[in-house]
Amino acid sequence: MSVLLNVQSLSKSFRGLRAVANVSFEVEEGAIVALIGPNGAGKTTIFNMLAGALRPDDGAIFFAGKSIHGLRPDQVCALGIGRTFQIVRPFAGLSVLDNVIVGALRRCARVNEARAFAATIVDKLGLGSKRDFPASSLTLPDRKQLEVARALATRPKLLLLDEVMAGLRPLEYDQLIAFLQEINQRDGVTILWIEHVMRAVMALAHKVIVLHHGELIAQGSPAHVVLDAAVLECYLGEDLEL
Amino acid sequence: MTLFLFFAYAGQAWNIMMGFAGQLSLGHSLYLGVGAYAAAALYFHFGIGPWAGLWLAIALCALLGAAIGALAFRYGVAGVYFTLLTIAFAEFARIGLDHFAWLGGSGGMFLKVAERDRVELLNLRGTPAMFYYVILALSAAALALSAWLLHSRAGYYWQAIRENEDAAQALGINTFRWKMLAVVISAAMTALAGVFSAFYYSSLFPEQLFSINRSVEIILGPIIGGVGTIFGPIVGAALLTVLAEGTNEIVVAFGWEVPGIKQLIYGIVLFAVIVFLPHGIWSALAGKLKVRE
Amino acid sequence: MSLDFVNLANVVISGLLTGIVYGLMALGLSVIFGVARIVNFAHGEMMALAMYLSVLLFSTFHLEPLFAVAPVAVIFFIFGYVLHGAVIHPFVTRPEHSQFILLLALAIIMTNSLLILFGPDARAVSLDYLLEPIELGPLLIDRGKLYAGLVAFGAAAGLFTLFRFTHTGTAVRASADNWLGAKVVGLDVKRLYALAFGLGSACGGIAGCMMILLVDLTPGLGPAYTLLAFVIVIVGGLGSMTGALAGGVLIGVSEALAGFYVAPSAKGMFSFALLILVLLFRPRGLLGNKL
Questions:
Q1: What average pLDDT does this structure show over C190-198?
Q2: Which site in A132, A145, A233, C172 is 20 to 30 Å from C42, CA atoms measured?
Q3: Chains that touch A (3 or more CB pairs under 8 A)
Q4: Buried b (16+ CB within 10 A) or exposed e, C157-190
């Protein structure tokens, strides 16, 4: 399997505070990789750098062999990286369907095409019955689904998911897990995923990367990482949510 | 009627920038003025008719809009600062043109008025009826354009930018480019309103054309009617025209002379709308009547 | 000393004094924005209101502006406080431009009410003793300007003291820095915002009271002063009180100089050009904090 995302020595500081320190990892094409670690470990900062929202202080990022260091978020999206935000950002005044159409227009030339494509995605994520509702009227779990739907509509090769499970009930986790599995296996979408819900991580991830205080302290298969001493000490030992 | 259509048209033009792309400009009188003076100067100094002159007006305003937009967006001037920036440019132009003798300065520029019952469409000299049809056509075109834009890619992208610029970028939208497009289209459309104004009144004064009062008048219609909608600016302009006429009738009937009563009523309506119906009267109505644009 | 230098000095002093009054007006706007986070687009109009009130007090009660300062300040404090609580505060959760339009509507209502009540003709307060200039060596200082400048400066100093040395002042500054944090700690943020708005209005009121000694009054002054206040506040630095005063003096002096050496009506261009440059290249103004 080829490497889709190659991150080398990524670093970022904010006014002297080191948020991300010398992080390197690879994501293989077609894999589901989970990024875990306590709050403040630097996970979202890494996402922001990958998505072009933040400029790294140091290091390099290669996506499908191309350097994406310093590109704008819209350029990064054009290359095939889609992302969701930890604190959801729906287009509140637009309907659910319109939200997703905005994403679909990235790859569809005509609005009609985009609308049809968006409709299928909306249905697949279980929001079909609410497609004409304003996004502002959705519950939080639905808004998270909308974030995912919108990002998916841009037909990404790599999907960056930021804590999409938070706030969902167990039934909804399972549905989302099944959905992610489907888009990964059937559509070949590579997923890099920040998550706290360990059950989902154990069930889905091919590889787990553990961050702590901005540093990468372990990476490997879920089974392997769970037993890693360093990881147990700093993270899992304290709150293991299985 | 002509005045109503004028403000309906200008309101539509402004609405594209604000309602669609979310950038509140209180300096649209700049484009009105530049458009007017561009066409008028060509006619006054070189005898070039408005149908040719309007191209210069559009070009100049588009460039100005692009310049202001580029500067503002590059340097991160947003929200209320952006509004102040637009006001500053309009005011700068107003005072500047007051001193610009070649364009008449503060004394004004006057275009030759042909006999009133001859219709000379080529030079836009003619009866009030002629002007009425011209502005009617412009308004209809603006309406069609707004409707088309709202449902096109541009409409979706602009609304996305308006609602959440970061999320829009993450979905692949080059927000700078699209904001610029909104600004340029809005400026170019307003330029035409300026050209119309120049030839309708046959006189131009910097104090009037570039005045912040003019900018405020332009935004009243769309805000009262409903920003971001297609019919909002028209409904708003209609309501304001009815109020103005009504007030006039009452004042005249009583033999009063009350300067500023019209503006006072506008202010009160604006206040009422922003407090009780912030999305505008048309939006509220459309919601009740379940009308989708 | 040469005559030219004396003329220049007179002009600068005149500008300085007018500038202090401008600075007080801008200070009011800065406090309102800095604390209550409100872009008071009706600030100049409130000042115009104060100017008309001063004229009325003079014509009805023979109360000179210099002595009317105290009652005017109180009236405007109350006016601002009530206006904020009743009308403006609900807009704190609304999008920024909604609030802006609200104040725009209020500005329109104020200006045109003044126009209807008082008519478009210019008004003034003429006091004979103010026409006598003060001689300071070779310099000639306009008495009215001097008194106005001194009162304005005094008011500004008073405000500084209030903010720096009283409990309420500290509370106000705290809520300015961190709305949520202030609420968590138990500060009644709404009341503090209203207080700030009242204080800012009072500044505008005092400035207006003093301004009537310097210029003739028409309803159109309101919008003009609003714009001037914004230019000063942004150039001087948003949220910086010293910045507002310094900005006022800067504008006052440059206006005076422009009026003396160049066409007086073009002086506005300078202010707006400066505003554009500051907005683009140094939005925090000359003395403001990093945004």
A1: 86
A2: C172
A3: B
A4: eebeeebeeeeebebbbbbbeebeebeeeebebe
